Amino acid sequence: MATATELRQMRGKEIGMMQNAIVKENETDYIVKSQSGNGEYRVSQTFKGFVCSCPDNTYRGWTCKHIFAVQFSFNLKQEVKRAITLSPVQVSLCHFCGSSKLKKGGIRHNKSGDIQKFQCLDCHKWTTINLAFEKMKHNPQAITSAMQLYFSGESLRNTRNSLRLLGVQVSHQTVYNWIEKYISLMQKYAEKIQPNVSDVWRGDEIYMKIKGKQKYLFALMDDETRYLIAQEVANRKEQHDAKRLFRNAKEMMGKAPIRLITDGLGSYQNAYESEFKNPARQTEHIREIAFNEEIHNNKNERLNGEIRDREKTMRGIKTMDSPVLSGYQIFHNFIRPHSALKGKTPGEACGITIKGENKWKTLIENASLAKNELQSKRRLEDFA
Questions:
Q1: Is residue 32 within 8 Å of 40, Cβ to Cβ?
Q2: Nearest residue to 311 via CA among 173, 205, 183, 208
Q3: H-helix or E-strand containing 49?
Q4: What values do phi and psi take at 26, rounded to 5?
Q5: Cα-flanking dihedrals φ and ψ of residue 89, to 5°?
Q6: Last residue of a domain, one of 296, 318, 340
């Protein structure tokens, strides 16, 4: 016969398996529906463990079914969490015919270093194994160092000056060309990676100057991991149609959130009703936020501060489609560690691990490999 504790565990498991029965409100608090569905309780994580607002825990001191439900839900999410690992790419195939029969054939001397040349024994063409950096005058280390310096806060000219101390002689325009080329490559690849974001998303907007005119950057961020899900630039704030932003976020994440937190801007309400208001899986929209309340926008303000610091160094952004905003999204999600995530990047908190000492290089190599595979697939389809 089951004990009282075992019965509460069983009921907690039943609640945990109910759709939308548990909503994570912030880092420590969960709202749990009662098993009857007629009420709800707050489960909070403290330094002593979980506490619940229900009578069983508050007055009797029992570990109640609502606490068991939160624990079960958390353990279940950890078990089903998709792990994505990006490793440095080791390429040993001919770029032209795909053959693995390669032989070394001398060295190509560049200003930035030497690159091994190979000859394919099948098609007899010469190639170099330098994925994503073919025909570049400078080596991958110089290019990725420039990107790290720039997105860490340096201007184009300061990045150029730092590279010169390392013996890399380039202009600030060359640095920008590198950024433009490789951010475009990585952005298309990153959009196809589906991270394990939570069910609570935050929307916010920040004004910035683009070509001397005031514009607004609308962004959606995951509450739990700080993963920057999607962003877009708008000419106006009040009349902006944020439907495309919400739609893209929903498609890339493969789901809609259970809870959406924004300010009272009408643009968000209209987009919410169009994209997230679904009777089958109702998304709760919280529009009233304040800094001194439980529902606040501190996390978005932190992200806005990062973007504002980047904009000040650049003295404004020059074009609406500037690679800088996309580049900073990649930097924020995959490269920059976050203190609130215990030194992890938002990508790592979402189950995306990037291996190798140079994460920029690993990302670029995997993006280039995916692009090459897609092009090869299309060529085969054309011949079929």
A1: yes
A2: 208
A3: strand 49-52
A4: -160, -160
A5: -85, 125
A6: 318
Query: What's the CA angle centered on 76, arms 73 and 79, to 5 degrees?
Result: 155
Cβ-contact 76, 14 below 8 angstroms:
no
pTM (predicted TM-score): 0.74
Q: Among 287, 318, 349, where does a domain finish?
A: 318
Residue 196 phi, psi (nearest 5): -90, 75
Domain boundaries, position 239 = 200-318
Report in angstroms the alpha-carbon separations of 251 from 144, 230, 276, 334: 30, 11, 12, 20
For residue 72, is pLDDT > 50? Answer: yes
Q: Could you list the beta-strand ranges (E) of 124-191.
A: 126-128
CA–CA separation, 381 and 148 (whole Å): 38
207 C-beta neighbours (distance < 10 Å), count: 12
Query: Does residue 58 belong to any structural domain of this protein?
Result: yes
Q: Which two tokens stand for residue 188?
A: 């298309």
Which residue's structure tokens are 């590198």?
178
By DSSP bridging, strand 213-222 and strand 200-210 are antiparallel
> Which is more confidently placed, 77 or 44?
44
